Amino acid sequence: MSVQKVLELIKEKNIEFVDFRFVDLAGRAHHITLPATEVDADTFVNGVAFDGSSITGFRGIEESDMVMMPDPESVYVDPFTAHATLIVMSNIYTPDGERYERDPRSIAHKAEEYLQAAGVGTDAFFAPESEFFIFDDVRYESTMNSSSFFVDSEEAAWNTNRKEEGGNLGFKVGVKGGYVPVAPVDSQQDIRSEMVRLMQESGLRVERHHHEVATAGQAEINFRFDTLTKTADNLMKYKYIVHNVARQYGKSATFMPKPIFGDNGSGMHVHMSIFNEGTPLFWEKGAYANLSEVALNYIGGILYHAPALIAITNPSTNSFKRLVPGYEAPVNLVYSKGNRSAAVRIPVAAVTPKGCRIEFRTPDSTANPYLAFAAMLMAGLDGIKRKINPAALGYGPYDKNIYELSDEEKKEIRSVPGTLDEALNALEADFEFLTEGNVFTKEFIENYVAVKRAEAKAVAIRVHPHEYGLYFDC
Questions:
Q1: Is 247 helix (H, G, I), strand (E, B) or coil?
Q2: Among the options 19, 71, 129, 263, which is catalytic?
Q3: Which of 216, 234, 214 is nearest to 224 (CA)?
Q4: Which top CATH class is 123-471?
Q5: Domains of the chain by residue range
Q6: Is 467 one of the catalytic residues?
Q7: Residues 373, 232: contact at Cβ < 8 Å?
Q8: Catalytic residue, candidates 71, 220, 233, 284
Q9: Would the pTM count as exceeding 0.70?
Q10: 210 an active-site residue?
Q11: 405 DSSP β-pair partners
Q12: Residue range 57-116, pLDDT digits in tens
């Protein structure tokens, strides 16, 4: 959409305010709102100033002036505000007009530019499957003398004897019993449908929605693939709508990977493919899973760099509460067709040449989508550049349930890092593939690692409630 079209849309929709947004290092959106009467063509040329020193991981106070440069291709009408508001995603620039090297959205753009400069293809397509929980009650605290959390859901397995309903109505979702049951077991059909309706009104092409495996309100809504940066924009829109519809229903939605113990966590399985001028590059009929050599090399890059990659695709301490065997978590660094116990799965049901893709199942939604998608693309492109053969490196294919392999067989399979610190160690040891084409800079990686180390330390030094059960009577 051109700037002129955006200005016409403001008049056509009687827009009162324009909300300019950018995304921080952690993947959270921030915004500054201007009255529509103050927005004109010059706004899209000169941008909107903000204080970068107040954003974690950005700039110090001595160089805090930064500029949001609006992207007219990203606009949509906010479905929640009382006053008609237009949302515009922005890239971040320094006051002297340089693209800010720590801006996640700019890094995503640079990854797309590198794809074309490398001569591999013209477009990289991404489609995330971002799972989430919808809770009725969320409480937590972490102080000097107290540490606790509490979540609740009317459909949770632990509420089969709850009396607060005025007589328990039953039909609770059992542990690991939540995959696509009908109502009344699935009590959240209407809230998900409302989310979908608003997503469609906001420009997302939604393909389906359903209850997910875990008890206590786990859900999934799938939207159509798009190019890298556009998909990251779409995921930000998706999460914004999920969070706010839940709030309208008096509930709270979270994309936290492991908010409850003893059941499946929430992942963000990411489907990827590369096209060249409309021609799919991952398809070769008759080959293993109909995958071309380009696709296998891309998989090789993903799996070879996976320990470092996971520091960006699974960047929270909570991520590693999900990445444990036994809960459909893809901890095994192998590839397979149709096998959900592998880190990389190749969908094979009803797949056409244009639909041929790979699915990286390890990521979760604590990831900044701009950084995560860019890093995945850079890993895959490195695999193509170096012609990494995943089979030759022992990454598969494994077409049986890996969790049922013998201990001896499992020794041959690499696993994901066990903690955020281990993943950050891997990233420090293996980051050059990210800096090709100056997509990520060494300075960015160092700053990113420092921010994430601080998060890991903040968790590690705090007393955990379970430690009282283990050690209080020592």
A1: helix
A2: 129
A3: 234
A4: alpha beta
A5: 3-100, 123-471
A6: no
A7: yes
A8: 220
A9: yes
A10: no
A11: none
A12: 887 665 678 899 999 999 999 999 999 999 999 999 998 889 999 999 999 999 999 999
